[in-house]
Amino acid sequence: MTDDIQARTNILEMQGITKTFPGVKALQNVTVDVQRGEVHAICGENGAGKSTLMKVLSGVYPYGTYDGDIVFENEVVQFRDIRDSEAKGIVIIHQELALSPYLSIAENIFLNNEQKGALGLIDWNKTNHEAAKLLARVGLKENPTTKVRDIGVGKQQLVEIAKALSKRVKLLILDEPTAALNDEDSDHLLNLILHLKEQGITSIIISHKLNEIKKVADSVTVIRDGKTIETIAKTDVTEERIIKDMVGRDLEHRYPDHTPHIGDEILRVEDWTAHHPQDPTRVMVDNVNITVRRGEIVGIAGLMGAGRTEFAMSLFGRTYGSKISGRVFIDGKEVKTRTVSEAIENGLAYATEDRKTYGLNLIDDIKRNISMAALDKLERFGIVDDGKEFQVANEYRKSMNIKAPSVLSKTGKLSGGNQQKVVLSKWIYSDPDVLILDEPTRGIDVGAKYEIYSIINKLAAAGKGIVVISSELPELLGICDRIYALSEGRITGELPIEEATPESLLKLMTMEKPR
Amino acid sequence: MSDLETKPSDTTAAGAQVNPVENKFTERLSHILGDLGKNGIFIALIVVVVLFSILTNGILLRPQNISNLIVQNGYILVLAIGMVMVIIAGHIDLSVGSVAAFVGAVSGVFAVQWGLPWWLSIILSLLVGALVGVWQGFWIAFVGIPAFIVTLAGMLIFRGLALVVLGNANIGSFPAEYRALGNGFLTDLFGEFELDPLTLGIAAIAIIALFVQQFRTRKARQSYGQEVEPFAWFLTKLVLVTVAIGLFAFALASYKGIPVTLIVLAVLVLIYGIIMNRSTFGRHIYAIGGNLHAAELSGIKTRNVTFWLFVNMGFLAALAGLIFTARLNLAGPKAGDGFELEAISAAFIGGAAVQGGVGTIGGAIIGGLIIGVLNNGMSILGIGIEWQQAVKGLVLLLAVAFDVYNKRRSGGR
């Protein structure tokens, strides 16, 4: 009988969803019920499985590639692709907006859904007129013929929603909708979601910003490690409860033991400021001051968009940003890091967040990837010593336990963990004083993570200064000696590991700029 | 070197103990097949040569024709060397034909109109080519304009300048030493014999050098614990190559000896082969083409590398222009027409990848030779220029399609 009641009130039931990737169980028996007309928040750490779940729901992962049932409007649905789900009224708006920058707002709204007149030709009057009506519904005061590239991200987000409305959306899914927005735009967007709710549109919002969840959500489902933890009704929602659900896993034995032997200061960064590369009025890194000592593993915690990678990349040879200012000291001596080679010469190394795009030459072999940042150590008169290079690479293959038939294997064929070991080998071979590791274990299975942590520990024990940037708080808490929290480009606090807890860190990470 | 003293964990490290039962025979066979796959382009050359030898009743392999083949294609091969490097870095150069024409015209002014010594004319002309490269490299590397656009503009600019320099006329009758670059034979220096001993001597030295080098590399690899191919297969390949060099030398020796163009080419292949295989500069080129971002974030000065690549291309285009002019003994307005397309085809037939990061000098040379044999063979057969064009286009398409198919099958990206 309760089933009958639910059947009437739930617009969506995802029942026992399990999704497996080679070697990884991304979702395990996840169950989410969304009531008609509510705003349902899905909460979880990065990598918990939120986006995977939404991809299952929207047909990006088609029926048959997952186990479990999706019941939408009392009917089991089997989407083959995203068009199937859109036909049923489920529209997903991704974090990276899917708009064509050189087309107008109206053209974007009706992309692949063109407003046609006689002879099947596009009726531009109708297109722009209908677009204007949709823009009014989302509260965007722009001319429909304006090109999308000429409006800000916040407005682009609204265009996406208008596009969803044009498809007669019943269930709107927003993936981290405010991650790239300023406060004003965020407020407008959240109000719009509430406004749409009044018009009967159900929304799922994926977010880890607790304040906005509390503002708009009627219920919250927390996902952790690919499993549903619980669904909390609005009246029971507290920040503490969500945080506990999000991070409350067994931290034992996930991290190797680490006894710090901390020496003198090796890196000091003073007043580091960087602006957005395209928009120099936007401050992305705001007056950051950090220090790292020899043998110390320092964490930088921050939510997505807090400026973690931006800080690291602007520091490492100004590979990000514009109008960069600040001072860098290595071993107490001021150094310049204006180009990557200058940064490397002065003892910095930076292993990027995205291995495949920024870290490796995937079509080349392990050997040449390892030697890439320090080829000068292997050359005489510009000629590389092949044999020595092979030897060096082979030593790293053994010491780092890179699982590959030989160092002549292409890095593109390795698993994520082994690719990361190649990246680390590359930087260790360049013999830096300070290694900045950006999301060193992203997309890596648990066993390989442990190995990476062990490597980090050994580097620290060898007297290097280590900076670990991570969006996984347990990871930072498990391996660091000291953690900085970053929010909106500013350091909002610094906690020694004894005082750091997920709660205390999250508080600092969500601390907003006084306005 | 390594700061990590991780416990030796060889047992787990060798995650690739695929199949210990695999017997020696299949191992050897897989080596040979692997080599054949890698040298597919080489086999294609042999197939083309055999095919046209039969079709032309052996005319293709007559000593005089073999000699002609080298001389007629020398300038394309020179261009192909530079072109494959540019392509490996992920760029393209459409201007080389025009640059070759321009430099040919300029060299005519130096050597004929101003009457400068032949060696000075050549040096100055090569310098002009390098300066053209500086110009194009500047726009590509430091301003950031795509190479396609810059060199398309260059194609027009330098064709135009060539016409300006020529002033609507041909410049002709170059000094004999200059002409030797395109027409000369090494025997000219020592007089003629029935079977040129110099050619055979140089071939013998080349074979000995090859053996020494191959054995040393093999030994070095073994001493570093690197896996090497089975000895029998290694030796078989060496012997096959030796026989090929021997026959080739014999053919040249029984005609007029070694063409100067061949000497120039051999030196270039040797130098650029080392650059691409063993030098940091070459490594940086591959790294940039394979993943520009990763190269940049590894401290490689990507802009400088790109700049020097185009300077080098300008230099080689100039050299090709000189060889062509020397061969015709004439600097004319139509010189270098379509060279860029032949050079680009050579690089792609030779296994270079459109998206960059992949390719070899040797591959480009063989690609160029395939085009050369096609040109030559079809000319002997009396096939018209229109069909020659069509066939060459088809071969290019099939070569790249085969490459794409191969990569997909082997599970590459």
Automatic annotation (TrEMBL), chain A:
InterPro entries to which the protein is assigned, alphabetical: AAA+_ATPase, ABC_carbohydrate_import_ATPase, ABC_transporter-like_ATP-bd, ABC_transporter-like_CS, L-arabinose_ABC_transporter, P-loop_NTPase
Pfam families: ABC_tran
Limits of the ABC transporter domain: 12-250, 267-513
Keywords: ATP-binding, Cell membrane, Membrane, Nucleotide-binding, Repeat, Sugar transport, Translocase, Transport
GO function term, MF aspect, one: ATP binding
NCBIfam families: GguA (NF040905)
Name of the featured protein: Sugar ABC transporter ATP-binding protein
Gene name for this UniProt entry: gguA
Automatic annotation (TrEMBL), chain B:
Signal peptide: none
Membrane-topology annotation of the record: Multi-pass membrane protein
Statement: the UniProt record of this protein carries the keyword Transport: yes
Key words of the record: Cell inner membrane, Cell membrane, Membrane, Sugar transport, Transmembrane, Transmembrane helix, Transport
Major localization listed first in the record, in broad terms: membrane
CDD domains linked: TM_PBP1_transp_AraH_like
Location relative to the cell: Cell membrane
TM region(s), chain numbering: 41-61, 73-92, 98-131, 138-158, 195-212, 232-252, 258-275, 307-326, 346-374
Oxidoreductase in keyword set: no
UniProt function note: Part of the binding-protein-dependent transport system for D-xylose. Probably responsible for the translocation of the substrate across the membrane.
Protein name per UniProt: Xylose transport system permease protein XylH
Organism listed in the record: Herbiconiux daphne
Lineage per the UniProt record: Bacteria, Bacillati, Actinomycetota, Actinomycetes, Micrococcales
Encoding gene, per UniProt annotation: gguB
